[in-house]
Each structure stands twice: as C-alpha cells, then as structure tokens.
Amino acid sequence: MNATVDDQWVMSRLAARDPGALRTLVARHQVRVFRFLARLVRNEAVAEELTNEVFLEAWRNASGFAGRSSLTTWLLAIAHNRAVSALRKRREEGWDDEQANRLADDADDPEVSAQKTEKAVVLRRCLDRLSAEHREIVDLVYYQELSVAEVSEVLGIPEATVKTRMFYARKKLSDILKGAGIDRGWP
Amino acid sequence: MTTGSNGLSEREELETLLPWYVLGRLDAADRARVEAWLGRDADAARLITLIREEQQAAVELNTAARIPASLTVERTMAHVVPKRSSPAHAEGNTWWIGLRDLFTLPTPGAVRLAAGAAAIVILLQGIAIGTLWRHTPAVYETASGQSTASGAAGSFALAKFADAVTAQQMAKELGALGISIVDGPKPGGLYRVQIAPGRLSDTERDERILQLRRETGLFVLLTPAP
C-alpha cells in the first residue's frame, strides 16, 4: 500500500523537524507499535523501550521515507528490525522463547488452568507457543491486517516466502493444538 | 497432485492465500482463483472458519496486552526530542534555548505560529534596541557619576520597567536585588542596569536574568547588554 496524502504530509513535516508532526505520528501509531513489539519480545519494559527507539529512528530518518509504503508498514519494519536485534541479544544472553514459555506455564494458577479447557483459550495459548518468527507473521496478518506485499516489506522477505511462512505457522499451530487435545482436521 | 517450485501442492498454494482472502486483501486475480476453488471444493469453506477463529484469537491476544501507564505520547516525545541535547544548551545560552524552544516545543499549530511570530518580534526589537543603544549619546548620568563604559567591571543588562512600577518601588526593589541603574533612560524608556558586581559567564548571566524575570514584576524587558 502506498503512503496516503496524509502520511506524506506527516512525513514531510517530520523531515522538516516539526515536533508537531512527530506528536501526530506517536499519537497515531504508538500503541500499535508497542503491541507488535510486546508480542514479539514478551517483555513489557523492553517493548516500551524499543517503541521509543522506533520513533527516534523515524525522527532521525524521516527524509528516507520514500512513500512507497504506508507509514504503518514503515514503522513496523523499523520495529521488526529492532525486535530482531533484541531477540538476538537475548539469545546470546541465554534467554529463549522456550524459557519464557516455561515461566508462563509455571505462573498459571488453578483458575487459569481450568480456563484452558475452553477451546478459544487453548487456541490463544497455542498461538503464544509459536516461535517468534511465526508469532510475528501471524500478528502482522491477523492483527495488523497487512497485505502480502506489506508483510514482505516489513520483514524484508519475498512475497512467496510471506505466503509459505504464514502457511507453515498455521500448520505448526495445528500441530500444537493437536498436542493440546484439539484436532482441527487440518492439514 | 502437482507440486510447485516451493514444494507445495496446488491445493496448498491456494491455502496459502486464504488468510488474505478472509481479510479482503487479495488482488483481483488471486481472489478469483480462491473463489473458483471454494466453489468446487466443499471442504475449503471449512478452512475459512478455522482462519476466522485464528484471527479472533490473534486479535484477542494483541488487544489483551496491557498498555503500561508509562507509555505516553509525552514520554516518547521526550525520548525522541530531548530538550537539552543541543550544543547551545551545553553552553548555557538560555536566551537562545528559550527562543529555539518557542519554535520546537510541540504545541498546537496556531499557538506555535503565534509564539513564533512573537519570538521574531522580540528578536527584531532586541536588534533594534541594541543598534539604537550603540548610536545614541548618553543623556543621563547616575548621581554618582560613575563611568558606564562597556568595559567597566560587572555584568549588565538592558531593562525596561513596567509602567505600573513607581520610582519608589523601583528604588526599593532594585536595592534589595542588588541591581543598580548605570545609564538611561534611553529613548524607549530603556535603562542599562548592573545585575552583578563581577563579570559573570554567559551562563551565569542568563540564569541571573531569568531569575530576575521570574522573581520580580519590575521588568517588561530584561536582556543581556555588553
């Protein structure tokens, strides 16, 4: 999706170092960017810090916004790169998603365990058990509602890879659901 | 069953498009392919239901994420455009900081425009006053008759007093503040005042001026003077 006239105007003002334009950008996109990052890095404080970094980078590189994509896509691409760096650093420090999942499981109280019997709850928990790469594409498609081309731009991968990555994320979800006792009959 | 270059069967390739079909984000050609498949394969419609369930779960997960109270527009703005980041701040040129902030602080457009216009007027007024000061011979000397040459010891400012301030009040308050009039009045009601007996650095001088502006109602104008 190309930038709208409004996007172009905001970015032209941002490139001219207009803090009012920055305020508009932050007010419109801050929560969206935070949620995207929070789901990926699974740490509220880190996600908040990265969100600020995303807008700092947008402020510094506003003149690099070519208008070929929407502002949302551009910001999410910056957020993706920030999250990848943070996750890489975390892996180097010996912290991985499996650890996070184990901690999340340990934190369940009896009430939460009882809720797991509901299919929707199980589905949400299984989505959360996907790898960071699969969670990311699922969120970009289902929550951010980006097109194939937009996801391709955010992740920096070919469109064909976007389609297959989403397909395999969904297959993996079905496998995890099956392990949790829910057979959806697909694939 | 044919297999494409990506290792997927033809049916699987169509399945890869389904999430975007449900979102209504496919181009016309792909949408037509999916609809043709849905028309001939009764099982395909069931997959649509699965995708809708997945999407609902993903949306619930995203919207359930707590937004921390500390995540505010103001904090992000402060992170991105810190007020004390320029060399001007490091040098303590507070008059410049104030002027620059008038232009850069995020305010609604109309307010910013008005503030900017006012800043320009003040800046031009300062330039005019400075020029006028240099080219106007002194018409007044203090009772002590002390020299008021620029090179004299002390730190100085140009002052214009508020109309409501009486001579008695002025004398009393200036004395209490340690300020003395060394020259004036010049055209426009301007006085040259000594704001400190010693030579202050630019930073100290600007802070002193800000303090005097804040703490007294004496001045309508107080700006550094040589």
Tell me what you see in this structure:
The complex is a heterodimer of chains A (187) and B (226). Chain A has 187 residues and is an all-alpha fold. Chain A folds into two domains: 1-94, RNA polymerase sigma factor, region 2, helix turn helix motif (Rna Polymerase Sigma Factor, Chain: A), CATH 1.10.1740; 96-180, Winged helix-like DNA-binding domain superfamily/Winged helix DNA-binding domain (Arc Repressor Mutant, subunit A). Chain A is 75% helix and 0% strand. In chain A, helix 9 packs across helix 10. The longest helix of chain A has 23 residues, at 19-41. By secondary structure, chain B is an alpha+beta fold. Chain B folds into three domains: 10-64; 82-132; 139-225, Alpha-Beta Plaits (2-Layer Sandwich), CATH 3.30.70. Chain B has helices spanning 10-23, 28-40, 44-64, 73-80, 87-90, 94-104, 109-135, 167-177, 202-215; strands at residues 155-161, 180-186, 190-196, 219-225. Chain B has a four-stranded antiparallel β-sheet with strand order 2-3-1-4, with helices on both faces. In chain B, strand 2 and strand 3 form a beta hairpin. Chain B is rod-shaped and about 100 Å long.
Q: Give the helices and strands of chain B as they follow along the chain.
A: HHHHHHHEHEEHE
What does the main sheet of chain A amount to? none
Distance between the termini of chain A: 31 Å
Report the average pLDDT across residues of chain A.
86
Please report the number of helical segments of chain B.
Answer: 9
Query: What overall geometry of chain B do the principal axes of the alpha carbons give?
Result: rod-shaped
Q: Could you give a quick summary of the protein structure above?
A:
Chain A has 187 residues and is mostly helical. Chain A has helices spanning 5-15, 19-41, 44-60, 71-92, 97-106, 110-115, 119-128, 132-143, 148-155, 159-179. Chain B is 54% helix and 12% strand.
